[in-house]
Amino acid sequence: MTQSYALEELQRETTFGGAGSEMKRDVPVIDLSNFEERREQIADELWHAATEIGFFQLKNHGIARSEIDAAFKESDRFFKLPNDVKSQWPRPKGVNAGYETRSQIRPSTGTADEKESYQITQYHMDGLWPTEGELPNFQDNILSFEQQCWEVGMKVLSCFADKLGFERDFFTKAHDPKQSDYQSTLRLLHYYPTEGVTEQGNIWRAGAHTDFDCLTLLFQHEGHGGLQVCPGKDADTKQWTSVPPIADVITCNIGDMLMRWSDDQLKSNLHRVRLPRVDEYCGSRYSVAFFCQANKTQMIQGPNKHYEPISAEDFLNQRIQANFAKADR
Length: 329
Fold this sequence. Notes:
8-stranded mixed sheet, alpha+beta
């Protein structure tokens, strides 16, 4: 059993106001400027962060602040649509695409996350896009941002390929957007406002979990806090660290897929989004996440062959069933 999978026991115990206290930790901030000239240094910094913590932030990553702001504007346009309009594009069972609200239930809480989300997985979007009449230019704008996220993700993964002894473009080929089994996903997230909530109990914006992918890129809206992390090596302490939302910084974490692919050298990281306290901003929280998930037919096996090979499609299906009370994600 990998460390990531053992975290499921911690997740089941972690409830709001119960298990878990706050602890200050340094989340590494890694500068990607002059990437090719500084590749070796950047790879060393990424490897240290990913093996020790599993969580890090990127600056000078190549996505302009204006592009990030534009993505949040698209997200805002989508979530402001009437509920009966958004519900036209429901997430199909077993497919990570389309719209959902309060349907994601984690074993860590047993209650639905207090959020709505819209998933974009390119080859599963038939009938799931808003029309031009409903949201002009939405599809083109979102896919343009998705491409920029993919490029940053592949830069980071190329450094891990170097360190693991794979060819430099190994993960780029494994996440090929030109193939019909491409399954990397861009997710727009809106966490519901909490004004007037007096009894928080076991209610979470996102219950404690690890991600299933190789690498997650998260864009946080400045002023919208609540994200907390607990590195896998510290899981038994149940001490959480808040990650401040900085508008032009990308917050990243290693997922279960890359942990297995690295023979457990890279650490999948436990994280959650707590409800705000009464003295904090209690309005809507927005974030945008990009999940680097290998193409379905890609076989996953680490350099030391610690685990038997498994397809990315089968791996994701196993992790969904292990981590969610509702196995259809």
